[in-house]
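New to this. Please check this protein:
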Amino acid sequence: MKKVFCYLIVAMLVSPEIFSQDSNTLTSKEKKQGWSLLFNGISSKGWITTNGQPVPSGWDISNGCISTKKGEKGGDIITVNQYSDFELSLDFKIEPGCNSGVKYFFTKYDTGGNLGMEYQIIDDVLGEDNILPTHLTGSFYDVLPPDKSIKKLNPPGQWNNIRIVSNGKKAEHWLNGIKILEFVRGDMTFTEAVAKSKFSKTIPAFGTVEKGNILLQEHGGVVAFRNIKIRILNK
């Protein structure tokens, strides 16, 4: 009985926002911290295709989520605005076998075309591109792997939360509240890893640009996103 009473006391002390916050909304604390929504849950406002067109019908907006449609080839979509120092948070859910990703610093390189640094999202078990550690969920795609010893990934059909933090040259990848990768853009470790990747020939050097768009990737499978929010750092 005493144990039950203790649990009730703890529940009363926990902020009710944790339990009652609706999707695609900001708490009063988040607003004070400078967070803003990139997706309002009901429209594609603030998003365009990579060639500047409105978000196509290959993307579905329903039930508070923006999702790819199976076989519709909706293409990638990007934010209207570009970002440099930021903290990005969002939830994603994939179907079995899906491959997707979230790119940041997405921009046009002088050599290499339109590119961005990718936080890889994939079905680590059934995804067709799941062999290399740098191609698994949470990796800096094809460049640096996440720390698999601490990574906690929920399976397809369940929601996961990711955070990407870019502060100066330092970048961090978080998954479900755990930091699984950190690196410094342009240092020796970073430069050597890029040189071994498919992005070794870009000009300027891949990942060294100062700003770019946020991109949600459509890669043929079904992936849903919600609670997409960003906080600008070093204003």
Q: What stands out?
A: The radius of gyration is 18 Å. The chain has one domain: 23-232.
